């Protein structure tokens, strides 16, 4: 293998740049040229590509976002659009593609594999919802961003004895809300993987008030409902007044944590090795501290499973 390509796709995640850097530099070690594709699959179809030299990925390990830009591109589901992508890569002499993104991005990669083009997926999303890997690039950074925000909200909530609802991203997954809830000591955590019960949330708030807690913080994952909707339910069902804070896209930004940088570096290098070894249609992941590869289809055939033991712990510790 003499030439490979790399792209970032879907919602960006801190650490994507570290993964791009690792791909380029590991490839250099193995004497392979790397082509960077701009704007994900859209750029691939439009032929927006550039050669990435070792120096081009210098000083990006610490930067959030993605140097290659990203896009959501629903048209990539069309067979003729995929054919165009493959034709562009073959014309440029590209023999394999590394896709850095979430499970949605993996579907596009799998379609290319079915058409005979080797692809490897690297999981990168703040949602941590890619089945088959315990962690995705960007999750740890986003988690620390949420913790920092909740800590700050707690300061003012305590001073004014307010009840705050903090709405956290995650699409259909509750990992970000759950881990942040544990780490920031939230009074209640509401995630899509556990049936929602307004009476239970009210009981938790009342229990806190009974033992003299004058402020509270509830974290709600966007996949369950918006913070505003939860505020309305609390008001209507129990007359409880709340303040709502929607953290929004700040959760996708920022300099990646050490953990995300290391994971991204490991994933990037492993992906290059996998392509060179002739693997195709494989996803890279981490399981019990070990970097592994597994069938790409596993990543969207299976449902994302959150850590329910951690949910139990969150409820136990927030009595
Ligand atoms: O998948 C990452 C993510 O940030 C989700 O948490 C969120 O639901 C979604 O992307 C938002 O996407 P967009 O930026 O396209 O609105």
From TrEMBL:
<dbReference type="GO" id="GO:0042802">
    <property type="term" value="F:identical protein binding"/>
</dbReference>
<feature type="binding site">
    <location>
        <position position="103"/>
    </location>
    <ligand>
        <name>Mg(2+)</name>
    </ligand>
</feature>
<feature type="active site" description="Proton acceptor">
    <location>
        <position position="127"/>
    </location>
</feature>
<feature type="binding site" description="in other chain">
    <location>
        <begin position="169"/>
        <end position="171"/>
    </location>
    <ligand>
        <name>substrate</name>
    </ligand>
</feature>
<feature type="binding site" description="in other chain">
    <location>
        <position position="211"/>
    </location>
    <ligand>
        <name>ADP</name>
    </ligand>
</feature>
<dbReference type="GO" id="GO:0005524">
    <property type="term" value="F:ATP binding"/>
</dbReference>
<feature type="binding site">
    <location>
        <begin position="72"/>
        <end position="73"/>
    </location>
    <ligand>
        <name>ATP</name>
    </ligand>
</feature>
<keyword id="KW-0418">Kinase</keyword>
<dbReference type="GO" id="GO:0006002">
    <property type="term" value="P:fructose 6-phosphate metabolic process"/>
</dbReference>
<dbReference type="GO" id="GO:0005945">
    <property type="term" value="C:6-phosphofructokinase complex"/>
</dbReference>
<feature type="binding site" description="in other chain">
    <location>
        <begin position="213"/>
        <end position="215"/>
    </location>
    <ligand>
        <name>ADP</name>
    </ligand>
</feature>
<dbReference type="InterPro" id="IPR012828">
    <property type="entry name" value="PFKA_ATP_prok"/>
</dbReference>
<feature type="domain" description="Phosphofructokinase">
    <location>
        <begin position="3"/>
        <end position="275"/>
    </location>
</feature>
<feature type="binding site" description="in other chain">
    <location>
        <begin position="125"/>
        <end position="127"/>
    </location>
    <ligand>
        <name>substrate</name>
    </ligand>
</feature>
<dbReference type="GO" id="GO:0003872">
    <property type="term" value="F:6-phosphofructokinase activity"/>
</dbReference>
<comment type="function">
    <text>Catalyzes the phosphorylation of D-fructose 6-phosphate to fructose 1,6-bisphosphate by ATP, the first committing step of glycolysis.</text>
</comment>
<keyword id="KW-0460">Magnesium</keyword>
<feature type="binding site" description="in other chain">
    <location>
        <position position="154"/>
    </location>
    <ligand>
        <name>ADP</name>
    </ligand>
</feature>
<dbReference type="GO" id="GO:0016208">
    <property type="term" value="F:AMP binding"/>
</dbReference>
<dbReference type="GO" id="GO:0048029">
    <property type="term" value="F:monosaccharide binding"/>
</dbReference>
<keyword id="KW-0808">Transferase</keyword>
<dbReference type="InterPro" id="IPR000023">
    <property type="entry name" value="Phosphofructokinase_dom"/>
</dbReference>
<keyword id="KW-0547">Nucleotide-binding</keyword>
<keyword id="KW-0067">ATP-binding</keyword>
<feature type="binding site" description="in other chain">
    <location>
        <position position="222"/>
    </location>
    <ligand>
        <name>substrate</name>
    </ligand>
</feature>
<feature type="binding site">
    <location>
        <begin position="21"/>
        <end position="25"/>
    </location>
    <ligand>
        <name>ADP</name>
    </ligand>
</feature>
<dbReference type="GO" id="GO:0061621">
    <property type="term" value="P:canonical glycolysis"/>
</dbReference>
<comment type="similarity">
    <text>Belongs to the phosphofructokinase type A (PFKA) family. ATP-dependent PFK group I subfamily. Prokaryotic clade 'B1' sub-subfamily.</text>
</comment>
<dbReference type="InterPro" id="IPR022953">
    <property type="entry name" value="ATP_PFK"/>
</dbReference>
<dbReference type="Pfam" id="PF00365">
    <property type="entry name" value="PFK"/>
</dbReference>
<dbReference type="GO" id="GO:0070095">
    <property type="term" value="F:fructose-6-phosphate binding"/>
</dbReference>
<comment type="pathway">
    <text>Carbohydrate degradation; glycolysis; D-glyceraldehyde 3-phosphate and glycerone phosphate from D-glucose: step 3/4.</text>
</comment>
<keyword id="KW-0963">Cytoplasm</keyword>
<protein>
    <recommendedName>
        <fullName>ATP-dependent 6-phosphofructokinase</fullName>
        <ecNumber>2.7.1.11</ecNumber>
    </recommendedName>
</protein>
<keyword id="KW-0479">Metal-binding</keyword>
<dbReference type="InterPro" id="IPR012003">
    <property type="entry name" value="ATP_PFK_prok-type"/>
</dbReference>
<dbReference type="GO" id="GO:0046872">
    <property type="term" value="F:metal ion binding"/>
</dbReference>
<keyword id="KW-0324">Glycolysis</keyword>
<dbReference type="InterPro" id="IPR015912">
    <property type="entry name" value="Phosphofructokinase_CS"/>
</dbReference>
<dbReference type="InterPro" id="IPR035966">
    <property type="entry name" value="PKF_sf"/>
</dbReference>
<feature type="binding site">
    <location>
        <position position="243"/>
    </location>
    <ligand>
        <name>substrate</name>
    </ligand>
</feature>
<feature type="binding site">
    <location>
        <position position="11"/>
    </location>
    <ligand>
        <name>ATP</name>
    </ligand>
</feature>
């Amino acid at each position: 293998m003499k030439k490979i390509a790399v792209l970032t796709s879907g919602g960006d995640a801190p650490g994507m740049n570290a993964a791009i850097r690792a791909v380029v530099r590991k490839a250099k070690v193995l004497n392979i040229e790397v082509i960077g594709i701009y704007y994900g699959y859209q750029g691939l179809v439009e032929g927006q590509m550039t050669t990435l030299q070792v120096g081009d990925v210098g000083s990006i390990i610490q930067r959030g976002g993605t140097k290659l830009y990203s896009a959501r591109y629903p048209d990539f589901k069309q067979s003729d659009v995929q054919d165009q992508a493959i034709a562009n890569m073959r014309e440029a002499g590209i023999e394999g593609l590394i896709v850095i993104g979430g499970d949605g991005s993996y579907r596009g990669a799998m379609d290319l594999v079915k058409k005979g083009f080797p692809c490897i997926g690297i999981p990168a999303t703040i949602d941590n919802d890619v089945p088959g890997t315990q962690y995705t690039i960007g999750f740890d950074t986003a988690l620390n961003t949420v913790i920092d925000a909740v800590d700050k909200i707690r300061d003012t909530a305590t001073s004014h004895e307010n009840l705050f609802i903090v709405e956290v991203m995650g699409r259909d997954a509750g990992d970000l809300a759950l881990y942040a809830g544990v780490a920031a000591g939230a009074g209640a955590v509401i995630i899509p993987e556990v049936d929602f019960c307004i009476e239970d949330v009210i009981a938790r708030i009342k229990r806190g008030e009974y033992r003299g807690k004058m402020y509270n913080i509830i974290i709600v994952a966007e996949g369950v409902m918006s913070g505003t909707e939860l505020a309305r339910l609390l008001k209507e069902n129990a007359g409880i007044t709340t303040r709502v804070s929607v953290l929004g896209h700040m959760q996708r930004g920022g300099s990646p944590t050490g953990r995300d940088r290391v994971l991204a570096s490991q994933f990037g290098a492993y992906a290059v090795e996998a392509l060179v070894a002739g693997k195709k249609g494989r996803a890279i992941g981490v399981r019990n501290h070990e970097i592994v590869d597994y069938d790409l289809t596993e990543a969207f055939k299976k449902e994302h499973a959150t850590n329910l033991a951690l949910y139990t712990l969150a409820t136990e510790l927030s009595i």
